[in-house]
Design a protein that fits this description.
21% strand; 160 residues; elongated; single chain; alpha+beta; 4 strands
Length: 160
């Protein structure tokens, strides 16, 4: 069995470290009690200092929180999905909660807190592509788009 040069160097270094920890005679080194400080309570002086200012000041806490938690920017326009194939769509939105097939049409449905996004895929040149998008909900048009953006953000968070 041959020992490589690097292994030999490591073994020698470890041996030197181990030998440096002892005092040569295999006994633990004795403590020099003459150099230890006195532990008498009467000799101990304790000082109490009043600190009126906090040791750490946090300024602009709102700015710090915004810097730490950056919002995920997404496009909230449902028309962005038009002409995407099923692979591109799944990459953006993930797995739908419902897939319905009606003849040559496939409908993928995604649900948010206050909205439902239906995406209609039709076969174009043997590839299923988005041809129509329906975003509906119980809120205003603007709030429904915010809900759809939340669906996109949720998928991004899940994937990261």
């Amino acid at each position: 069995m041959t020992i490589k040069k690097t292994h030999l160097i490591i073994i020698i270094a470890v041996c030197m470290l181990i030998s440096a920890c002892g005092n040569g005679n295999g006994q633990k080194p004795l403590a020099d009690n003459n150099n230890l400080p006195s532990l008498n309570a009467a000799d101990t002086v304790m000082a109490v200092e009043d600190v009126s200012e906090p040791l750490i000041k946090i300024t602009n806490a709102k700015k710090i929180a915004k810097a730490i938690i950056k919002p995920i920017i997404v496009d909230d326009n449902p028309q962005q999905f038009i002409n995407l194939d099923i692979f591109q769509l799944a990459k953006l939105l993930g797995t739908p909660i419902l897939v319905r097939r009606d003849g040559m049409v496939e409908v993928w449905q995604y649900k948010g807190d206050s909205c439902i996004l239906d995406i209609f895929l039709y076969q174009v040149n043997n590839i299923m592509k988005v041809q129509y998008v329906d975003l509906r909900g119980t809120k205003t048009h603007h709030q429904n788009r915010q809900c759809m953006a939340a669906i996109l953000r949720q998928h991004i968070k899940y994937m990261s």
